[in-house]
Amino acid sequence: MNVLLIGSGGREHALAWHLAQAEKCAALYCAPGNAGIEECAECVPIASDDIDGIVTFASEKAIDLVVIGPEAPLVAGLADKLRAAKIAVFGPSAAAARLEGSKAFMKDLCRKYEIPTAAYGRFTDPEQACTFIREQGAPIVVKADGLAAGKGVIIATTVEEAEQAAKEMLSGAAFGESGREIVIEEYLDGEELSFFALADGTHVVPFGSAQDHKRAFDGDKGPNTGGMGAYTPAHMMTQTLADEIMNIIIKPAIDAMAAEKCPFTGVLFAGIMMIDGKPVLLEFNTRFGDPECQALMFLFDGDLLDILDAAAKGRLKDVEDQIYWRQGVATCVVMAAQGYPAQYSQNTAIDLGEADFVAETKVFHAGTARDAAGKLVNQGGRVLGVTSLGATIEESRSRAYEAAGRISWPEGFYRKDIGWRAAGR
Ligand code: AMP
Ligand code: GLY
Asked: Do 211 and 274 meet the contact criterion of CB atoms below 8 Å apart?
């Protein structure tokens, strides 16, 4: 099979690394890819939002399957355009990607189909939004309806902060068009986990769990980021909990999307808050998490191409007994440029040293590039995902930290406490 992967992050390096090992993978391309992905795929300089460029390339190269990593091209309709050109795609249509692309759509769907989630209101008018905020009181959560690169959620601890966030979003000042409508919701206090499932439009199967670490610094302090590290499986995951999440959240959502005539194909990633032992849905994403995917791919032991291809073609039932996982725990420690998630320097030199030689370890690249001399430099904020497997969380994180310690990058930083919740049990 000729396979085209879309994206350029650590998630895509992990997917490319796994896809390249698949028996049927004859050629693997990645648009646009990064300096790490080059080891396992041919990177082509087509941006992930260049929909026409991607469709043309896929037709020319007789691509048999396109795997779409990031949310923006999904929401923009890349999967629809590819399907119209008769090219198989792992990833939802624009209509189905509204589960991530519109928080108002997602909340209304949950209400209609009785999927447990925080109580909420939808607003386009700042006066009405502020009245609602004052009635509800703080803490309260204000969310831009549309995509906002992971920054569109404000957990306000005071009424004033919530009112200000609502006004800034609705005026377009904070997130442009994405904030012209907002969702204001009940603050849920509990422990979070990420749950993944693969769907082929009608059938859906669980595909692992993880815990992300969203704050920039140790002890869950500092600004929110895209994710500074993750481990899988989440420490609280049991078969009973997985069944419950499938039965009350995932399956009802997949059935609802089919009933609404926008069947979901791809990865459904549920952000779950555990409240008194019960799972409550925080949000859906319509793609793999980053850095959760790096840890998941390190633990996944089946043939990824077979599974994603079957999902893309409505045949998930045929392969669901081929989803295998290695024993143990996988941990991904993200190395980011100092200053991230705010301003950071680019083109700073990175020496990976002997990091990859630590047992059961792989360094996935995210924001990396090669300079004119071929040396590795950073280009993005999140730059590396040092990922290790161990029999236990302790072994897996100690391997990841051993490897991170071997990397020389004075302009980088990483959290030293990834997996602390699991390690503390
Ligand atoms: P999102 O951008 O939708 O992925 O949300 C980002 C993060 O905000 C989530 O992972 C949670 O940590 C937090 N969050 C979202 N909604 C709520 C809520 N209703 N209560 C508490 N925290 C929330
Ligand atoms: N790590 C969280 C996300 O990918 O949305």
From this structure: no
DSSP H/E element including 284:
strand 278-285
Identify the architecture of domain 2-91 in CATH: 3-Layer(aba) Sandwich (3.40)
% of the chain exceeding 90 in pLDDT:
92
Nearest Cα neighbor of 162 from 195, 145, 186 is: 186
- Determine the distance separating the centroid of ligand 2 and the alpha carbon of 269, expressed in angstroms: 9
Ligand nearest to the CA of 211: 2
Q: How far is the CA of 228 from the centre of ligand 2 (A)?
A: 10
Fold of 329-424: Glycinamide Ribonucleotide Synthetase; Chain A, domain 4 (3.90.600)
Query: Could you tell which of 154, 283, 285, 292 is best to mutate to test the pocket of ligand 1, judged by most ligand atoms within 8 Å of the CB?
Result: 283
Q: State the pLDDT at residue 135.
A: 92
341 is written with which tokens?
Answer: 């998630």
Contacts with 49 (C-beta within 8 Å, 6 or more apart), sequence order: 72, 73, 76
Ligand 2, closest atom to CA 230?
1
Ligand whose nearest atom lies closest to the CA of 107? 1
pLDDT of residue 177: 85
User: Tokens representing 225?
Assistant: 């980021």
Residue 355: per-residue pLDDT: 95
CATH class of the region 191-322: alpha beta
User: Which residues have a Cβ under 8 Å from the Cβ of 173 and sit 6 or more positions away?
Assistant: none
DSSP 292-345: HHHHHHHHB-S-HHHHHHHHHTT-HHHHGGG--B-SSEEEEEEEEETTTTS---
- Give 182-237 pLDDT, tens digit per residue: 999 999 999 999 999 999 999 999 999 999 999 999 999 998 899 999 999 999 99
Task: Please provide the DSSP assignment of 76-123 as one string.
Answer: TTHHHHHHHTT--EES--TTTTHHHH-HHHHHHHHHHTT--B--EEEE
| CA atoms of 326 and 58, how far apart (whole Å) | 33
CB 194 within 8 A of CB 289: yes
Superfamily of the domain at 119-186: ATP-grasp fold, A domain (3.30.1490.20)
Q: Which of 225, 346, 201 is nearest to 290 (CA)?
A: 225
pTM above 0.85, yes or no: yes
Helices 10-20 and 292-299, packing angle to 10 deg: 20
CA of 100 to the centre of ligand 1 (A): 13
